[in-house]
C-alpha cells in the first residue's frame, strides 16, 4: 500500500481534488481510501462515503491537529492495510501555518488556491516549502496573468516541487496528477521509525496546559514577547 499526505489551508479545495483524483485512480483499478484529520468539525467523510470510498475521520478537539495527526498515523496506516487499499490518502488542514504533517520518504501534496492572496505562499511555511507536489486550484475564476503570477510566487517558495493547476469542480488535471502517485513502486507496511520533515511547534506554555488567566505572572514555559520598539521612548 502506498501512502500520500495531503494538506493545505481550509477551503483550498483539498477534498474536491482528492475526490476527482480517486475517480481517476479507479479508472486504473487502483483502490484508494481516505482518512480525514480536522480540528472541531467536518462532514467531508460523508462526501467520500457517498462515492463508496473507504473513509475514517479524526477530530483533534482541544489538541493541536498536527500533533494529533502524528500521534495516530501509524494506526491509520494499519487501518488502510486491513482494508486492502492500494493507496491511502490522509487529508489535513494546515491550521496554524507553522508546521506540516509531511513524513520523509512519503509523498507530500500541498493544495493552495489562486484566491487565497498573492502573499499567501510566503505565509504558509513548511506545509508549502517542503511539499513534493503543489496543486493550485480555482484557476478558472482568475485571469491567465493572475494564475501565472501566483504560480511564480509558489515556485519562489518551493522551487523543487512539481507545480500543477487542477480544477476540483471539473476534474481537469486530476488524471495527470493521479499518474504521479505511482502506487506500484511503493509498499508502506509501517511508518513507525520514520521521521517528520519538519518539527512540530516547539511552544509549551501555561496556555497550552489550560491556563486562562492573562498576565505575566501566569505565563510559564516557552514564552515569546513582541518587540514593540518603544522602550527608548519610555525612558526619555
From TrEMBL:
Q: Which residues form the CobW/HypB/UreG nucleotide-binding domain?
A: 4-163
Show the SUPFAM superfamilies listed in the entry. P-loop containing nucleoside triphosphate hydrolases
MF annotations from Gene Ontology: GTPase activity; nickel cation binding; zinc ion binding
Q: Which GO terms describe its biological process?
A: protein maturation
Species, as recorded: Iocasia fonsfrigidae
- Gene3D superfamilies listed in its UniProt record: P-loop containing nucleotide triphosphate hydrolases (3.40.50.300)
Q: What is this protein identified as?
A: CobW/HypB/UreG nucleotide-binding domain-containing protein
Amino acid at each position: 500500500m502506498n501512502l500520500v499526505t495531503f494538506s493545505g489551508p481550509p477551503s483550498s479545495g483539498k477534498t474536491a481534488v482528492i475526490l476527482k483524483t480517486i475517480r481517476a485512480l479507479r479508472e486504473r483499478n487502483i483502490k484508494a481510501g481516505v482518512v480525514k484529520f480536522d480540528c472541531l468539525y467536518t462532514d467531508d467523510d460523508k462526501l467520500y462515503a457517498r462515492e463508496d470510498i473507504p473513509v475514517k475521520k479524526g477530530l483533534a478537539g482541544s489538541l493541536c491537529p498536527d500533533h494529533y495527526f502524528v500521534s495516530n498515523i501509524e494506526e491509520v496506516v494499519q487501518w488502510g492495510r486491513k482494508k486492502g487499499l492500494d493507496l491511502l490518502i490522509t487529508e489535513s488542514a494546515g491550521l496554524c501555518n507553522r508546521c506540516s504533517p509531511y513524513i520523509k520518504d512519503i509523498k507530500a501534496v500541498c493544495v493552495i488556491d489562486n484566491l487565497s492572496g498573492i502573499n499567501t505562499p510566503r505565509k504558509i511555511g513548511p506545509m508549502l516549502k517542503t511539499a513534493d507536489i503543489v496543486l493550485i486550484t480555482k484557476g478558472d475564476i482568475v485571469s491567465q496573468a493572475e494564475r501565472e503570477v501566483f504560480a511564480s510566487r509558489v515556485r519562489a517558495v518551493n522551487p523543487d516541487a512539481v507545480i500543477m493547476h487542477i480544477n476540483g469542480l471539473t476534474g481537469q488535471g486530476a488524471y495527470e496528477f493521479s499518474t504521479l502517485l505511482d502506487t506500484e513502486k511503493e509498499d508502506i507496511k509501517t511508518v513507525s521509525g520514520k521521521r517528520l520533515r519538519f518539527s512540530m511547534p516547539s511552544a509549551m506554555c501555561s496556555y497550552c496546559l489550560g491556563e486562562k488567566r492573562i498576565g505575566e505572572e501566569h505565563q510559564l514555559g516557552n514564552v515569546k514577547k513582541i518587540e514593540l520598539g518603544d522602550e527608548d521612548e519610555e525612558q526619555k
